[in-house]
Amino acid sequence: MSKLLSQNIESLAEFLAHALELEVESAERYRELADNMRVHNNPEVSELFRKLAHYGDTHAAEVEQRAADFELPYISPWDFKWSCPEAPESPCMEDAHYMMTKCQALELALHNEIRGRDFYAQVANGSSDPAVREAAAEMAAEEDTHVNMLREWVAREACVTEKRPLDLDPP
Ligand code: ZN
Predict the structure, then answer these.
(1) pTM of the predicted model, to two decimals?
(2) Contact by Cβ (8 Å): 154, 104
(3) 51 alpha carbon to ligand 1 midpoint, in Å?
(4) Distance 81 CA to ligand 1 centre (A)
(5) Going by fewer Cβ within 10 Å, which terminus of the chain is more open, N or C?
């Protein structure tokens, strides 16, 4: 698992600032994907992404509520943005996502749920502050349920078959 944080998070306020950014962005991305899937006649997947957007909203609201007691620190523009799965040729994010297929959308979502979960898990393991560890572990567990939900969808859609076939005739 690649390191998603350059240094450990040692205060709850700092953790909440990161979590808020992560959840807000995630909800936005899911809304975009949901709209995109609706336009392309994938109402079921659109529905799934709406649900995931809703989870992101709920998380963000919980985090904001917890953060009410704190002055959240400014965190510098963070590189924890949604990213594309490893496949460099898959359409991803703004550039090409209007032409994204159902499987590509699911893979993109799965990739980012895994990153979210791993981020929280890394915070939980790395912090010396018990309050941070506890909050991060809770979030990691919830993200893990989203990862599993998406894995089931990817399996159900038999997305593997849509991936580029193994290169049988390498250069
Ligand atoms: Zn999630």
Answers:
(1) 0.80
(2) no
(3) 10
(4) 14
(5) C
**85 vs 71: CA distance, rounded Å:** 35
Burial class (CB in 10 A: 0-12, 13-18, 19+), 13: middle
Nearest residue to 102 (alpha-carbon basis) of 52, 150, 54? 150
Q: Other CB atoms closer than 10 Å to residue 44's CB: what's the count?
A: 12
Question: 113 C-alpha to center of ligand 1: Å?
Answer: 5
- Going residue by residue through the chain (171 aa), what tens digit of pLDDT does each one get? 566 776 788 889 989 988 988 898 889 889 988 888 887 778 888 888 899 899 999 989 999 998 888 888 877 655 566 677 765 444 465 544 566 778 888 888 898 899 899 999 999 999 999 999 999 999 999 999 999 999 998 998 888 644 444 555 555
CA of 53 from ligand 1 middle (Å) equals 8
Give the distance (Å) from ligand 1 centre to CA of residue 110: 9
33 vs 107: CA distance, rounded Å: 12
